[in-house]
Specification:
The complex is a heterodimer. Chain A is an alpha/beta fold. Chain A contains 13 helices and 15 strands. In chain A, the strands form three sheets. A seven-stranded mixed sheet of chain A has the order 3-2-4-5-7-6-13, with helices on both faces. In chain A, strands 10-12-11-14-15 form a five-stranded mixed sheet, with helices on both faces. In chain A, helix 2 links the parallel strand 2 and strand 3. The longest helix of chain A has 18 residues. Chain B starts with about 30 loop residues before the first helix and ends with a strand. By secondary structure, chain B is α/β, with parallel strands linked by helices. In chain B, strand 5 and strand 6 form a beta hairpin. In chain B, helix 1 packs across helix 7 and helix 3 packs across helix 4. Classes of the chains: A alpha/beta, B alpha/beta. Chains A and B meet through helix 3, helix 5 and strand 9 of A and strand 1, strand 2, helix 2 and helix 4 of B.
């Protein structure tokens, strides 16, 4: 049974977590994601779950680590500065191969920055963020419906790969309201035979990331690397590139919604433009982007930062086609009209190959 | 012909492995591991105990005790233990932390776990230096004590004063039991076993947060023999960190 409800993005995300079986939440207040802990604090006790407001994001992510080690379906959420504090714990979660969902409803930075939306945390999310050789799976919703759906998907990926999964939203996605089809899926039965529960009638279990013996750490790094390679099967992307298009726009998250409107308007004016929206930022949908840009000859990455995903897009193209960039950092949200102008500039551009428009 | 009957008067705890401790001669971690093992046996917790191990010389506790264990980032053991206990409230959850871990980098986590009355048991080993990293100044280093980062001795005007964690944690309402014990002789070790038993009982009876601070030696980084180290505990550590029970749920 499914029904449509008008929900705020942060609430849809919290509902998606609960419907995916999340029963443990640990967090610390920070704008613009406070609706999530508030909703979880009101909902979890009745479901037999646990909500703890931690004394810091450092403590919160380590409570997540403990709950995950004990086999719990656990989530935390924060924004920029808080996610920076969580990097230590994220590194340990990845090194210890523990499942957890971590939500970043971004605000602008660096430092205390501002509370307006940004995509400036792309590198931090997709490169691991903390110390050591690891990756998070990173999902980028672009609607309130996806705030609900992808949170369920995040729990599936976390348990399937025993790896932390990040949902990279932003202040727009967290705060806006849209109709959502709420459709709780039956959570798959997870193998938790590795979890800590007390060594009753079995050998003790150990959750660790310390490897000191000769070659152990190297072997562990390659094991993790193989997992990240397997994770590539989960790459998701929306491709809308009609035959004959000569410019492919690439955007993710809330920014991709604005670009969508600009692309539709440009097409009405007869411009041959396509749009690609990565849904997973790690794994990055490199095949689809490489194929589309090399076919069109030109790509245009629009991001609400000074240029981060554009690096991945250029790598994906392997030199087959040029990729332009237009950035809106620091909480500036572009209008569809501005993007349309950038599309016109890109189509008419005859200058240096990899330019910032 | 006379028959000699042997009577066993002492044995290792059943949850302690036969592995030889990696600790330096005169270090008290081995004794404290055994006392923890004895307490686990006394309450029959080997099948339900989960240890959370901080960063320091004690990190290999999981090699010596046959219980489920989780490594924690430096200082974060009380937060990790909180997550484990909230998922498995019927497990017996303890942390094992040194002074740099608990009183330095993890001060926030330990104080708030106690303030929440988190139903966990904390084993706190205070040897007044960072042992594993080579003897740097710890939050518990005594005034005047020479370390590799206070080569002329800890000068309070420059380096600050030691923290007395057992007293500090005892001041919090969420704490059910807080005691300090010493490892320097048999009398004090018997008292230590008694304190540990009480701290375990606090958790088993769901009375809240419990902590036992152990004064212990680090002969390697103190640059003393094991016997000289024992004497240093008596003459310097015990006066600065008086053993005693600072909060007891039975009072």
């Amino acid at each position: 049974m499914s029904e449509k409800e008008l929900l705020k993005g942060n609430i849809a995300l919290a509902r998606g977590a609960l419907d995916a079986g999340c029963r443990y939440y640990f967090g610390y207040p920070i704008t613009p994601q406070n609706d999530i802990p508030e909703y979880m604090s009101a909902s979890l006790p009745a479901l037999g779950g646990v909500f703890v407001q931690a004394e810091s994001e450092l403590a919160a992510i380590n409570m997540v680590l403990g709950a995950s080690a004990a086999g719990g379906a656990v989530m935390t959420s924060s924004s920029g500065p808080g996610i920076s504090l969580m990097q230590e714990g994220l590194s340990y979660l990845a090194g210890s191969e523990l499942p957890a969902v971590v939500v970043n409803i971004t605000r602008s930075g660096p430092g205390l920055g501002g509370i307006a939306p940004t995509q400036g945390d792309y590198f931090q999310a997709t490169r691991g963020g903390g110390h050591g050789d690891y990756r998070l799976a990173v999902l980028a919703p672009s609607s309130v419906q996806e705030m609900y759906d992808l949170t369920g998907e995040a729990f599936r990926l976390a348990f399937r790969y025993r790896n932390p999964v990040m949902i990279l939203g932003d202040a727009i996605l967290g705060q806006m309201k849209e109709p959502v089809t709420v459709k709780p899926a039956v959570a798959p039965e997870e193998d938790k035979s590795w979890a800590l529960s007390g060594a009753d009638g079995r050998l003790p279990h150990l959750v660790k990331s310390l490897y000191l013996d000769d070659g152990e750490m190297t072997a562990h790094n390659w094991k993790l690397d193989q997992k990240y390679t397997r994770l590539k099967e989960e790459a998701r992307v929306e491709v809308d590139c009609p035959p004959g298009c000569s410019l492919v726009l690439i955007a993710f998250g809330s920014c991709s919604r604005i670009v969508r409107t600009a692309v539709d308007r440009a097409r009405k004016r007869g411009l041959p433009v396509g749009l690609i929206r990565p849904v997973t930022l790690f794994p990055f949908p490199e095949k689809e982007i490489g194929r589309a840009v090399s076919a069109a000859g030109r790509g245009l990455v629009i991001e609400m930062n000074t240029g981060q995903m554009v690096d991945d897009a250029r790598l994906a193209c392997k030199g087959e086609g040029v990729v332009y960039f237009k950035g809106y950092p620091g909480g500036t949200v572009p209008t569809p009209e501005q993007i349309e102008q950038v599309i016109d500039e890109a189509i008419n551009w005859r200058g240096a190959a990899e330019c910032q428009l | 012909m006379s028959v000699v009957t042997e009577k066993k008067v002492f044995e290792a705890p059943s949850c302690l492995t036969d592995k030889v401790f990696h600790f330096c001669p005169g270090c008290h971690h081995g004794l404290i591991h055994r006392l923890v093992g004895e307490a686990i046996d006394q309450f029959a917790l080997a099948g339900s105990a989960i240890g959370v191990i901080g960063v320091g010389c004690g990190v290999f506790l999981y090699d010596y005790l046959t219980v489920d264990c989780c490594e924690a980032p430096h200082g974060r053991a009380p937060a990790v233990a909180t997550g484990i206990k909230r998922v498995n409230p019927d497990s017996f959850v303890f942390t094992y932390q040194g002074d740099g871990d608990l009183a330095g980098i993890g001060t926030g986590e330990i104080i708030h776990a106690a303030a929440r009355g988190e139903n966990i048991t904390v084993i706190f080993v205070n040897n007044s230096v960072y042992g594993m990293t080579g003897g740097q100044m710890a939050p518990t280093t005594l005034p005047g004590q020479k370390t590799t980062t206070t080569p002329e001795g800890r000068e309070p005007a420059r380096d600050g004063y030691p923290l007395r964690m057992a007293e500090l944690l005892a001041s919090l309402e969420g704490t059910a039991y807080s005691a300090r014990v010493s490892c320097h002789d048999n009398l004090h070790l018997r008292r230590a076993a008694k304190a540990l038993n009480k701290a375990f009982r606090a958790q088993v009876e769901k009375r809240g947060f419990s902590v036992v601070e152990f004064l212990s030696a680090c002969p390697t980084n103190w640059h003393l023999t094991p016997e000289q180290s024992r004497q240093k505990i008596i003459s310097e550590m015990v006066p600065a960190y008086p053993p005693g029970v600072f909060r007891d749920f039975d009072d």
